[in-house]
Specification:
The complex is a heterodimer. Chain A is mainly α. Chain A contains eight helices and no strands. Helix content of chain B is 26%, strand content 25%. Classes of the chains: A mainly alpha, B alpha+beta.
Chain lengths: 192, 352
């Protein structure tokens, strides 16, 4: 695993107090972190809060960060994963409709928006019904396209174990998709 | 492109996942987070470390006539003051040998007396050379065992607060759902209260095997924080244990421990019985079984973890790899020994 071009240099510059370098690191990783967090939590505002916390911790930890050949994003995803665990442990109640709140803030074509949101909703529901390890693996591998070696670092498992787990996770996801589709289809039928 | 060895069905599913539009972070939120981060970043810089000149044009050297005029005024005033002081104090500076200033003060005072004119101008315009005035005693001492969050606010020498014991039990239950009434799911006789909006309620049915993590409240209801549906085909990480229970031992009756009202049954010859005491904080993995005395949790793994006490807001967690560790509010997230150069988690106390 190697650092993306210039990232090592950016980290060094950030460690010496360069705000521009910190901003570039943020721009490089914020979308991926937000996507991952968004699929793991119920509301957009929570995802934004947790994403913000990831980068607060990044700047707090930069001074002691040492490059050991692992990309910075692996560290950031690991922080995010831990924050999500904390989020659920601290919260005794779960609230807010998944992803539906984003409908109101989107400015694309309403029909396209609805279809897109419904796909997101189905994926969200199906993924959220999986064990946490499966959620992490599928999101990091197939939504964020991270290599198994990097996911292994984030999830603290071996790459071989992850490859074996991947088959089970996909099988479980397929089953959940069926259930979600059946339930949502039934709900639509009831509404008519 | 994903080059995993996927079956056609799996590949189709992956394509389906990747075809779904990704959630987008809105521009306003993106900028808010950035500003918050940069504000935090400025706070993390040690005194004296300059901020990025590119991002802080207000620190650039003055070029306008107004600034030049201001600099000239400062130079003239500074020069007059120094000449006056130099004249009146010259004898004292040469003859006196009774310094009263602290070492920190001497660092500041000495240059302005010995080379007054060259020093005054850059100090007034760059605004950076004031930083040596900050006494080193206020620089937080970063140690490897402290999360950065704590290190920023704790001056050196400030002791890390010793946590105190919590009595709330964190419970993990895996098992078949026996009933669902509104948002209350029952597993092994335990009522599990799930938020009414939780998506899992749309998916699970009686008979499904689910995993619940939550807190057991005083009335015996588990307030669920995480609920996930376990696929039938997926073997558990530790197939021998389906229930996790962390909490203080309330009583010991022979080989039965009472942990937050739950009977935990050890083997009669379990060596842990020699050391466990009422009040010990234990982390248990096992299986519920029905006996004459009711439902008991038959132990597969158990560990005493009360040699590390935690304050309210901390909890003990056994992750999927079987590693136990503490989490605490506001202390950073503990990266543990992550091999990533951070070493942020040691202060949490590894209890595994």
């Amino acid at each position: 695993m190697q650092q993306p071009p210039n990232e090592r240099e950016l980290i060094t510059q950030a460690q010496s107090g360069d705000e521009g370098a910190v901003s570039l690191l943020y721009e490089t990783h914020v979308d991926a972190i937000f996507e991952y967090v968004r699929y793991r939590v119920d509301s957009k505002s929570t995802a934004e809060d947790l994403t913000s916390e990831v980068f607060l911790r990044m700047v707090r930890g930069l001074a002691t960060y040492r490059d050991q050949g692992t990309p910075l994003r692996a560290w950031l995803f690991r922080i995010a994963a831990n924050l999500i665990i904390d989020h659920y442990r601290q919260r005794k109640k779960v609230s807010a409709g998944p992803l539906l709140d984003e409908l109101a803030s989107d400015d694309t074509d309403p029909i396209e928006r609805l279809a897109r949101s419904e796909d997101q909703l189905r994926l969200h529901l199906a993924i959220r019904a999986l064990p946490e390890d499966y959620q992490d693996l599928l999101l990091l591998r197939f939504v964020e396209n991270l290599p198994h070696t990097e996911i292994a670092t984030i999830m603290n498992k071996s790459a071989d174990a992850l490859r074996a787990m991947q088959h089970r996770a996909l099988k479980a996801l397929a089953k959940q998709f069926e259930r979600v589709n059946a339930n949502l289809g039934q709900q639509k039928g009831d509404e008519k | 492109m994903i080059d995993d060895q996927l079956s056609p069905e799996e590949r189709q599913l992956v394509q389906k996942i990747q075809a779904v539009a990704k959630p987008k972070l809105e521009a306003t939120a993106r900028e808010t987070i950035r500003q918050s981060m940069l504000s935090e970043f400025r706070g993390t810089l040690p005194p004296g470390q300059p901020h990025a000149p590119r991002m802080r044009p207000r620190f650039s050297f003055p070029t306008t006539p107004i600034w030049v005029a201001a600099a000239v005024v400062v130079l003239v005033v500074g020069l007059l003051i120094v000449i006056q002081n130099g004249t009146s104090n010259h004898a004292a500076l040469e003859g006196s040998s009774t310094p009263t200033a602290t070492p920190e003060q001497q660092i500041v005072v000495a240059p302005t007396q010995t080379a007054p004119v060259p020093v005054v101008a850059p100090t007034a315009t760059e605004g950076v050379t004031i930083t040596p005035l900050v006494s080193p005693e206020f620089i937080p001492s970063l140690t490897r065992t402290l999360p950065p969050t704590t290190a920023q606010v704790a001056p050196s020498g400030t002791p890390v607060p010793l946590p105190t014991l919590t009595t709330e039990s964190v419970v993990t239950i895996e098992g078949p759902v026996t009933s669902i009434t509104d948002n209350v799911v029952t597993i092994y006789g335990f009522q599990i209260e799930v938020a009414p909006q939780h998506p899992i309620l749309q998916i699970i049915d009686v008979g499904d095997v689910v995993r619940v993590e939550g807190v057991l409240d005083s009335s015996g209801v588990v307030l669920a924080a995480v609920v996930s549906n376990l696929p039938d085909a997926a073997p558990a990480a530790d197939s021998r244990a389906t229930v996790g229970l962390d909490g203080p031992v309330e009583a010991i009756n022979g080989n039965i421990l009472i942990v937050n009202g739950i009977s935990v049954q050890l083997a009669p010859n379990d060596p842990l019985l020699q050391t466990v005491l009422p009040g010990s904080f234990v982390s248990v993995q096992g299986n519920f079984e029905t006996s004459n005395a009711g439902i008991v949790l038959v132990v597969v793994n158990i560990a005493i973890v009360n040699n590390i006490s935690v304050e309210s807001g901390c909890w003990y967690h056994v992750d999927a790899m079987g590693m136990g560790h503490w989490h605490c509010d506001g202390m950073g997230m503990g990266m543990g020994n992550d091999g990533m150069g951070m070493g942020m988690g040691d202060a949490m106390g590894m209890g595994g």
